[in-house]
Structures are given as structure tokens and as C-alpha cells.
Recover the amino acids of this structure.
């Protein structure tokens, strides 16, 4: 399965999953869902320490987390040329 | 000043019309992220102490893909980055890999590969530095890495023929 189809499958599974209630749960859901799709369909073993592209899609790693100016409750995870923002949909009191 | 900050300073001077962002990681010893934006062009650079630079500027770069190109230090990364930006070129993902890179992609140490082959780690180190191999040696290494060796000949008309391996051993 090519990366475009795997990405589409990842999005579908993520949307179908029950909502997470914390930032950690959200991040874990994203990682688990993408890793499952890649384990099933990429044909490439999981090795996130490898920086060079190896044909597998990896969830953003915890050593690439950044603050977002003006939004202290939002975390930005960076992958090459892509950002993933995780925050609560519930306004803080 | 670390290498990524040095790169940022250089790029700010060399490409004054570009928007350049540099993000410091929240975790200690994490990955720094530099992004350069020009009209219709985006170059992403990641840097981590001891790991070097990873870069990607290919529009087909997918979510979660690793770097297209990796460089050990500023001296080797910067000329390539300047070339890419100057000519608005995409990075080139690897089509072929060196034996060392392949072993690392598979998450195996030289010691582990040596253990699987019943050899010393130094022999693996020497093999990874070589460009001339006996077919039987490559077959052994491929098996130790969990794969199998396939030898192909590619012709000017782009046709390919897989070579049957057998008979007298020959050096490639």
C-alpha cells in the first residue's frame, strides 16, 4: 500500500476512534493508530531513531515538541514539513 | 552558539527576503526545528546535538516521513542547503543506501550483525567501508540483516534482469 493510501487509512481510523480526554491520551492515540497502520501495511520495521526516510511514516516524536506563543495549553509536535497541534477542546476555567 | 543557530544566522544574512523560524525543543537535548519559507518554497531542517542535520524540501514529502537527506555537521549541510534554496530545488530521498545506513535503519548494531555471522565486530566495520564484495559475503550479510540478496542488471532501455547466483564465486 503506498504512503498516500496508508495516510488516508490513518486518518479514517483516527476519526473513528473514541475521543481522547487528555493531551497524553491524544498523543498516544495518534502514535498507536499510525504505528498500527504502518505495521500492517508499510512493510518497514519500526525504527523512529532513524532520521533518514526509510519508507515508513512515523508519528511525531517527543523530542520534537515546541511551545506555541500565546497558547500555553497547546503543544506543537513537529515532523519534517508538518506540524501536529494537540490541545483540549474544552475551554479552561 | 550551537550549529543550528549558526545556520540560522547565516541564512538570515544570505536570504534576507525569506521568513525563517527556529524552534528550540522543550525537552533537553531534543531536536531543533528550522523552517525557511520563500514564495512557493519551503525547506525544513532538523538538528540535534550529536546527530547532525536532516533536511526536506520535497513537495511530495508525506506526513511522518523522515528526512530526505542527512548531514553530519554544519560544514557538510550548509552548502547543500544554500544550493537547494538558491535554485528552489527539492531534496532527493535516497534510492539506494549504504550498508551502514541499511544496518542502522534496521536498528542493528555492528556487534549484533557480527554475532549473527559468528564474526568479530571489526569485520563488519571493515565490510561497511568497502566498495568491492564477494557475492557470498553480501549474501551472508543480507541474511544476517533479515533479508536476501538479489542482483539485478539494468540496461539502457530501462529493462532489468535478475541474475541467478550460483556456480563459481565472483566478486562484484
Amino acid at each position: 500500500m503506498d504512503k498516500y493510501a496508508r495516510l488516508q487509512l490513518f486518518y479514517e481510523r483516527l476519526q473513528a476512534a473514541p475521543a481522547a480526554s487528555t493531551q497524553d491520551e491524544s498523543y498516544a492515540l495518534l502514535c498507536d493508530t499510525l504505528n498500527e497502520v504502518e505495521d500492517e501495511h508499510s512493510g518497514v520495521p519500526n525504527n523512529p531513531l532513524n532520521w533518514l526516510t526509510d519508507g515508513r511514516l512515523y508519528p511525531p516524536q517527543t523530542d520534537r515538541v515546541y511551545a506555541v506563543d500565546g497558547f500555553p495549553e497547546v503543544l506543537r509536535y513537529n515532523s519534517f514539513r508538518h506540524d501536529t497541534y494537540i490541545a483540549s477542546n474544552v475551554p479552561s476555567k | 552558539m550551537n550549529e543550528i543557530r549558526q545556520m540560522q544566522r547565516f541564512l538570515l544574512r544570505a536570504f534576507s527576503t525569506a521568513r525563517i523560524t527556529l524552534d528550540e525543543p522543550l525537552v533537553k537535548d531534543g531536536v531543533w526545528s528550522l523552517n525557511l519559507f520563500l514564495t512557493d518554497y519551503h525547506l525544513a531542517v532538523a538538528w540535534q546535538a550529536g546527530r547532525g542535520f536532516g533536511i526536506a524540501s520535497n513537495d511530495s514529502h508525506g506526513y511522518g516521513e523522515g528526512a530526505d537527506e542527512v548531514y553530519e555537521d554544519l560544514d557538510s549541510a550548509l552548502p547543500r542547503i544554500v544550493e537547494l534554496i538558491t535554485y528552489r530545488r527539492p531534496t532527493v530521498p535516497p534510492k539506494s543506501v549504504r550498508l551502514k545506513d541499511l544496518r542502522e535503519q534496521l536498528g542493528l548494531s555492528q556487534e549484533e550483525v557480527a554475532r549473527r555471522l559468528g564474526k568479530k565486530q571489526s569485520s563488519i566495520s571493515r565490510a561497511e567501508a568497502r566498495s568491492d564484495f564477494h557475492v557470498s559475503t553480501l549474501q551472508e550479510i543480507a541474511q544476517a540483516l533479515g533479508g536476501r540478496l538479489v542482483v539485478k542488471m539494468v540496461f539502457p532501455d530501462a529493462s532489468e534482469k535478475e541474475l541467478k547466483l550460483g556456480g563459481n564465486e565472483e566478486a562484484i
